[in-house]
Specification:
The protein is α+β, with helices and mostly antiparallel strands. It has 2 domains: about 260 residues, Aminopeptidase, CATH 3.40.630; about 110 residues, Alpha-Beta Plaits, CATH 3.30.70. It contains 10 helices and 18 strands. A hairpin with a 7-residue loop joins β17 and β18. It comes from Harenicola maris.
Length: about 375
């Protein structure tokens, strides 16, 4: 390991490595639960109380209560992390943990095992000292990378009971934290036509693909960069053969919106959609997946605290709004939420995913300082 790495960063990196080397692809229930075992043991070492919520189709979720605050009914701080990654089981064989200078590589190291581990160590630091002014709960979910279908209600319930929410998604663009996110709207769109022989009875067919081509262009025209709305038709399939007029075609649509007014605009657009060919039926299912995470006065106050803590540590903290979603989208409408509190790096979801080792100790101290400053 490089001599330039501080003892504190080396210690953090060694712990992060143990989490990275437990593969935890979302569908791999055994893998996610193995990481939950490791996290439970690491947290139990500082006296925290760990409650395991059995998964339903995905891995288990963990609710960790820091060892201070007792049975206080005072609303506290909720930290949210996810254990699952997008990297399939076996990725470590071709993309193992490795260190090159100030960079550490590995599947899930940036999104978000590095940040989740640093947050755990910040809580452990406080447990070894005098605790923090407010009770702290650290929630680890097993299914964030697929939209948190089995953890969403748990996230919202815990967020409503909290005074503040801190999310350990990775930092962005050189260490910036996230104070707002776009919402996500998802649709499955299907066109139902009529099959016929493309050579001898073409006139008898009603092409589902032709109709879908019109529909795709209509959806894509929703994109308005000034408005903050983007639409991506990301998957498409249809037809049964080149010599058959296609009777069915489907697409999956991802729309990102800046605010709830934009959601209304999208919903009105979808409600008004009609097929160009009246002999083809249009079927649309879906809707709001994650609500917009909009910055407000409560989030401003949280960011001001974080900025002060960062300045004391030695850097100028900046914030941004991003189009990507997180579990913070579920909490921000109920409780002031600060996101992007994880490690600095890049390449989430790729085969070059990486973190900056020099960001580890500052991020641990940032989390600790925020927990100490929230009252």
């Amino acid at each position: 390991m490089s001599a330039q790495i501080s003892p504190e960063a080396a210690d953090l990196l060694a712990g992060i490595r143990t989490w990275v080397e437990i593969e935890s692809h979302t569908p791999d229930v055994a893998g996610v639960n193995a990481l939950a075992d490791r996290i439970s043991a690491d947290y139990a070492a500082c006296g925290a109380e760990v409650t395991r919520v059995a998964g339903t189709g995905y891995g288990d979720h963990l609710i960790v209560r820091a060892p201070w605050g007792g049975q206080s009914n005072t609303p506290g701080v909720l930290i949210i992390s996810h254990m699952d990654t997008v990297h399939p089981k076996g990725t470590l064989e071709t993309f193992p943990f490795r260190v090159e200078g100030d960079i550490a590589f590995g599947p899930g190291i940036y999104d978000m095992k590095g940040g989740a581990y640093c947050a755990m160590r910040a809580v452990s630091d406080l447990a070894a000292a005098e605790g923090a002014p407010l009770p702290v709960t650290h929630l680890f979910v097993a299914d964030e990378e697929v939209g948190s279908p089995t953890s969403k209600d748990l996230i919202i319930d815990l967020a409503k009971a909290a005074k503040y929410v801190l999310v350990t998604e990775p930092a962005r663009e050189g260490g910036k934290i996230v104070t707002a996110r776009k919402g996500a709207v998802r649709y499955d769109v299907t066109t139902h036509g009529e099959a016929s022989h493309a050579g001898s009875r073409h006139q008898d067919g009603q092409s589902a693909i032709r109709e879908m081509a019109h529909t795709v262009l209509k959806f894509e025209n929703l994109t308005d960069y000034n408005r903050g709305t983007t639409c991506n038709v990301g998957l498409i399939n249809g037809g049964t053969g080149t010599n058959v007029v296609p009777a069915k075609c489907w697409v999956k649509v991802d729309i990102r919106i800046a605010d709830m007014d934009a959601l209304k605009e999208v919903e009105e657009f979808v409600a008004a959609l009609t097929p160009e060919n009246p002999n083809v039926r249009l079927e649309i299912n879906g809707g709001l997946d994650r609500p917009p995470y909009e910055r407000d006065a409560g989030i401003d106050a949280l960011f001001d605290l974080a900025k002060t803590v960062a300045k004391d540590i030695g850097w100028e903290l900046e914030s941004l709004k991003t189009g990507g979603g997180s579990d913070g989208n579920f909490t921000a409408q109920y409780t002031p939420t600060l996101d992007g509190l994880g490690v600095d790096g890049k390449g989430g979801h790729t085969d070059y995913e990486q973190l900056k080792i020099s960001s580890l100790q500052p991020r641990r101290l940032l989390m600790r300082g925020i927990l100490e400053g929230l009252t």
